[in-house]
Amino acid sequence: MRMRVFLVGLIAATAMLVAPPLSAPPLSTAAPAPVLSGLTNAIAGRLALADAVAASKWASGAPIDDPAREQVVLDTVSQLALARNLDPAYVRNVFRDQIEASKTVQRGLFAQWRLPGQTAPPATPDLGPVRAAINEFNVAIVDELADSRDVVATLSCPPELAVSSSQSAAAARFDPLHVAALVQAGASVCAVSTGSS
Question: What are the tens digits of pLDDT across the range 37-50?
């Protein structure tokens, strides 16, 4: 819990540092991308699809929770983890956070659409194409976890994750609901033992 609060604070603080002042002159050279930007961009891309999932479930009357689908995702990413010499338990934890973050967005949108004067966007009940896109992001996230294995197991991971998440959220133009979900989605990425308290 303290790690999540720490990450929320870091992302909020770095959001102001990452965005240049309006009067700042253009930089002559591009700044290097944050270390975990590939990972957080993939996580943000997957999370952005929660809007389409929510609209589809709203249209069909389907529940937000889908344990059977969630189990398929967790089993699939476990196999992907093994193929990349990653700890399947670690990858499953990361994807439990992806699933819960997606449901956070869906619940938030459902709550908005229930308000007087609000309506859900038009959507098809068919989740097939959206799930195919989610599956592509799942593979990308596991690939990025494999590429970042030397970072996520170090104490530099939390601040690196905060900076990368802040930039990914800004690039995706996430609102507060999606920013909070993005923090939730990254809660298990940093595989650093914090010890007992």
Answer: 999 999 999 999 99
